[in-house]
Amino acid sequence: QVRPVESGGGLVQPGGSLRLSCDASGITFTVHGMGWYRQVPGNERELVANTTLHGSIYYSDSVKGRFTIFRSNAENTAYLQMNSVKPDDGAVYSCALQLVPFAPLIWGKGTLVTVSA
Fold first, then answer.
1. CA atoms within 13 A on the CB side of 73
2. Per-residue b/e over 11-48, b at no fewer than 16 CB within 10 Å?
């Protein structure tokens, strides 16, 4: 089973920007849904943003206006542009794919974002 591969995590200062990438180019058809989740140890995993092939986009209230999700359908790649980063944004960010509507999610291993001055 092809899993997405995340990249772009790292250290960012409060107020800074970071762009995460989710590569699912190994899948030979256009993926229906691509989303970003995040988790801090001891907390539940949180849906940050997702987008579907048909153009619907969701953002959690905690990132609305600061983060942008966008995708390249031709490359089955999704991005999460993180602006005005806050300390609470520090977490492991994981990409999740939904190959077709209502299918189970396929998870990547995640990429760590650390927010610190």
1. 8
2. ebeeeeebebbbbbeebeeebbbbbbbbeeeeeeeeeb
> From CA 109, how far away is CA 95, in angstroms rounded?
8
Structure tokens at 74: 């031709």
> Please, which residues bridge with residue 79 across strands?
21, 70
What is residue 36's DSSP assignment?
Answer: E
Gap between the Cα atoms of 96 and 107, Å rounded: 5
pLDDT band per the 50, 70, 90 thresholds, residue 2 = confident
Q: How confident is the model at residue 1 (pLDDT cuts 50, 70, 90)?
A: confident
Strand residues in 13-63 grouped as ranges (E): 18-23, 33-39, 46-52, 57-59
Q: 24-73, pLDDT tens digit by residue?
A: 998 989 999 999 999 998 999 999 999 999 989 999 999 999 999 999 99
